[in-house]
Amino acid sequence: MQTLIEKRVFGEQFGTTEVCIATELGLVVVSVSADQVGEFSLSYKGAVSSVAVTAERVAISTPDGVYTASTDGEEYGEFANQFPSESVAVGFGSTGLFTADSDGVVSRINSDGSVTSLGDTAGVRSIDPPLIAAADSVYRISGDELIEAGLSDVNDVSGIGTPFAATTDGLYTLGNGWMETLDGPFSLVASDGHERAHAVGEDGLFVGVNDVWDAEPFPVDEPISAIAHGSGIVAAVTASGRLCINAGDGWRHQLLGLKRPTSIAVAHGDEISVD
């Protein structure tokens, strides 16, 4: 993705990471240093509906199946089809890579390449193991099965740290059962797994710090299509294809002109320092 010279100069002060964006045209990977946006490239050509990243692998969902590639090295490796059936969502969990098709069937792709079917839903919207957002409920992945965990018309979930669910009725957090945190329709939620989270609702962007939620000004008047935490930054992409980055000192943005972005993930890059 980056040349060695670019890594030295571009990331000398802050370290670098990569932001992966699923779009109608393919997977776009953008080099980021703190809130500075660097070069970007199309790493996979073809419609991509969802993307997930670990320190070693990137996975994408496509109409032709789930493709994965290595993230180790200067460039992403060649994408290989790990699941030759339609996929609308993907997510890495502790026991494997999870995927769902347009019928709401959830499967796990095991490390040996075998596939385990976990169960049916009324339609998966997002996967963030161990949680799944579906039209009829939040589901929890437990071994080789799915367990209904409550709520309905769930648009998004955050499964790391304190669980969150964005629904058409409100934003919920899991404590002694699901508790409403914010009222109104919410479409997106993302968390760093510790003390900070973001959610996108009908009234805009909200930030939660240690369970205290407030509205957060967003730098552009454009709908947010996807949002994610990772490597010390928050990354969001708008419907117009504008990448917005917040590394702790406010939002900065750059129009990339991406067509129909649907999902975003932040790679496990160098930890950012803002000293």
Automatic annotation (TrEMBL):
InterPro entries documented for this protein: Beta-prop_HVO_0234 (IPR056505)
Pfam families (alphabetical): Beta-prop_HVO_0234 (PF23366)
HVO-0234-like beta-propeller domain residues: 4-267
The species this protein was found in: Natronocalculus amylovorans
Name of the molecule in the record: HVO-0234-like beta-propeller domain-containing protein
